[in-house]
Amino acid sequence: MSKSFSPKSRRIYAKISSFNSRKLFSSQSSSSSSPSNLTNSILTCTTANQALELFHSVSRRTDLTKNPHIYSAIIHVLTGAKLYTRARCLMKDLIQCLQKSRRSRVCCSVFNVLNRLESSKFTPNVFRVLIIAFSEMGLAEEALWVYYKMGVLPAIQACNVVLNGLVKKGMFDSMGKVYGDMIARGASPNVVTYGTLIDGCCRQGDFLKAFKLFDEMIEKKIFPTVMIYTILIRGLCGESRISEAESMFRTMRNSGVPPNLYTYNTMMDGYCKIAQVKKALKLYQEMLGDSLLPNVVTFGILIDGLCKTDEMVSATKFLVDMAKFGVPPNIFVYNCLIDGYCKAGNLSDALNLHSDIGKYQILPDVFTYSILIKGLCGVGRMDEADGLLQEMKKNGVPANAVTYNTLIDGYCKEGNMEKALEVCSQMTEKGLEPNIITFSTLIDGYCKVGKMEVSMGLYNEMVIKGIVPDVVAYTALIDGHFKDGNTKEAFQLHKEMQEAGLRPNVFTLCCIINGLCKEGRIKGAVKLFLEKTGNRTTGSKINEMDRSSYSPNHVIYTALIQGLCTDGRIFRASKFFSDMRRSGLRPDVFTYIVIIQGHFLAKLLRDVMMLQADILKMGIIPNNGIYRVLAKGYKESGYLKSALRCVEDLSGADIGRSNLNDL
């Protein structure tokens, strides 16, 4: 417990009080300096800077977490001296101290500490500083509490800070209530107030209200700044309402408000998001014409847009332009280029770019590695992908769930389930729990290698862990059970899937139809197809949303055509083939093989010849499989000359010499 000053000490204290605070503090022992006397010393300093120096001396020797009123004193002094930045910094320190030491709500604790000061140096402006400090720390609810607790309307700056904090937190209802309270208490909103409110409306997607506020501020002779226009443009671009954003951009210029770099970047980003890169490039030239120099954000937007539209040459040219403008590229720019090269199948350039990053002292991040790993896994270069994972560990870049799931998927696709599980174990060792994607990928992998018991084990583990299986997991299991000949279990899972509220997608439908066809249940497959796609012959209606959800693909059509051909129903198969063409789906080589085989079985040789001509008309290059089916079919039908021609084509396709006896 600290002792009070003796009479002698008081005299010494009075004598040296005119000296600077460091001398004052050094002349006293810490044991004789009570918190209340230190508070008084700060309050009685002749200048704010002297008080601040004394506070710093005190803070090195006193546990301020136990004496928050010392903070209160210096904050009041600095606020009274209009040293708001310093006051705000110390306010944040006080907040953090009380967050650690108090169990009650921090806003209440800080408010009470500030409010208890009994001194002529007390100023209510400290609560405005408190509101701003809370907002800057992301504590919007605490700032709101202080706003209402003050009892008087704070300055408009503090009101705007409260509104902005609520907008950033997505507390739009509270934003509206605070604004209403401000107006009721006589506040005069300024351009910042309107900018914040318009931003909140745009984030909600309420553009009707945003434009109403925009018109209201003009009526009040509060003229929109570049910030207001840019907020509206950003909101419209975010909703892909690009024509309205263009209109606002023109209005801005016509009103004599020149767009700034941020406005141009926002507009260009809007164009790139909807793949209108040419318009973005035109705007870029316009920006240069306005003597505005691009920054790294500008180049990042354009390079990303060009990469996503496969314009890799142009994207690379912009990397060169960055050097001309003296703008160093950041990791985002490199990630865009690397991703673009990977998606274009140009892994060598992607890997070279990864190697070049080090020259600019830019460190690859988790996204860089994940992009490259995905690219390598996509072409089966699993050893290199795993090598990059080891490189990540070496360079101290922690892999995330996406990285591990990508590798797991790669190993599953090549049937290496042992290695996939090994990567999954590494993932859990790093504290990352397998998620729905991990389980779905492993289930699909085990289904594809025919290990249905393991797949079902993983499915049960998901359920036990509270992870709800998704459409991908169910579809993989349904497909696996059909291929395993377990039709009953497949339909049971389909039922469970629907009961769980999950809507089967086109791939689920494809698996079921394919499974039914292979089981010889062609009638059931056709019935399901007609029901789910809306192509009913009974005249009954189907919801338009349902129909679009089950837009059939060429795989479904091929499965049905093959099933009908095998069942000897060639005319129905031909009808589905025609429907497929009419719906804009392009038959692939396997579809043609299936329908040609069906026509050979039905002895419809003229139709076979028409299909053969159709293949060439469609620009499909016949492969080994088509030539063999044609040669064998013509031979068995007694058309030996046609069979021989197909054999010659088969030999000429650089597949090797063949003859009719080989068929």
Architecture overview:
71% of the residues lie in helices and 0% in strands. It has 38 helices and no strands. It has 663 residues and is mainly α. The radius of gyration is 36 Å and the shape is elongated. The termini are far apart. The N terminus is likely disordered. α3 runs parallel beside α5.
Question: Could you give the topology of this structure?
Answer:
Blueprint: H1 7-16, H2 21-26, H3 35-43, H4 48-61, H5 68-80, H6 84-101, H7 106-115, H8 125-136, H9 140-149, H10 156-168, H11 172-184, H12 191-204, H13 207-219, H14 226-238, H15 242-254, H16 261-273, H17 277-289, H18 296-308, H19 312-324, H20 331-343, H21 347-356, H22 366-378, H23 382-394, H24 401-413, H25 417-429, H26 436-448, H27 452-464, H28 471-483, H29 487-499, H30 506-518, H31 522-533, H32 544-549, H33 554-566, H34 570-582, H35 589-601, H36 605-617, H37 624-636, H38 640-655
Helix pairs in contact: 3-4, 3-5, 4-5, 5-6, 6-7, 6-8, 7-8, 7-9, 8-9, 8-10, 9-10, 10-11, 10-12, 12-13, 12-14, 14-15, 14-16, 16-17, 16-18, 17-18, 18-19, 18-20, 19-20, 20-21, 20-22, 21-22, 22-23, 22-24, 23-24, 24-25, 24-26, 25-26, 26-27, 26-28, 27-28, 28-29, 28-30, 30-31, 30-33, 31-33, ...
